[in-house]
Specification:
14 helices, 12 strands, four-stranded mixed beta sheet, alpha+beta, 14% strand, three-stranded antiparallel beta sheet, 318 residues
Length: 318
Amino acid sequence: MRIGAWARDHEALQELSRGGVITVARLEAFGVPRRTCYRRCRPGQPWQRLLPGVLLLDSSRPTRRQLVDGALLYAGPDAIVTGADVCRYHGLRVPRTTSGQVHLLVPEPCKIASTGYVLIERTRRMPQPDLDSGVPMAPLVRAVLDECRRFSDRDPVRALLTDSVQRGGLSPAALAGELEGGSNRGSAVPREVLRDVLRGARSVAEIDAMAVWRRTSLPEPRWNHALHDPSGRYIGKPDAYFEEVELAWEIDSYDFHFAKEQYANTLDRNARYAAAGIAFVQTLPSRMRSEPRLVAAEVTAAYLAAAARLEARRERHA
């Protein structure tokens, strides 16, 4: 191409790029001098530098997809996106405390380093990428645990792991298998949280309930176990069920259970418990953290009352 002709062929430049993101090397091959590339990225000029050797052919704020494409062009053809971007693509709610970095996996021999908004992780366990989105992405189970390993606090790990089961459709066993097969770095908190998920917790509130239960001397309940009457009709699926005394423990939040429709459903559920002779105790999720000792005492008292009631009923029928 004749020198300078590229400046009049904007469509050709866009076609060479990935949504406006392009490497300096590719621009040079198209006929754009290297110094011109960087001169056009100065303040007030039409382009901008995203990463070393990677430019955006626009001066406006880059989209998330452009940032991801820029990271992949920077890291090379073997790089795979993992972590928060994959989780969001699958509809998971990623905790806000995560950084805005694009997390990439690259083969261990790769010498590319983290820079700017790109986090490079070298690994011997490169997964087979999913290309459905047009971006090479790690499988969801790998991405979830890669993200969890970046946290030292339990709360974001609890939120993401339970959401990956509830919303993402991952099985606790698959998460456990991936965690065991992966790096030990940063795995302590995910391992701790996953133990409760394997017990049956499907929300942060239920993990908190398990922590409260451990404050008691009560036997372990059945977590998220569906109850049916002798004829097979559905009664309910309490967060915890102490089968030996027929006591259901429900973690009922204002946000869900006391909206108009959910409130009616809660009343129906409680009526089914009563009709089936099942005692129940209800707790707000916030109290699990603000008053754990008091909640533990309340659940213990409800357990003892349910045990006494069941014993009295047995004596009447003896």
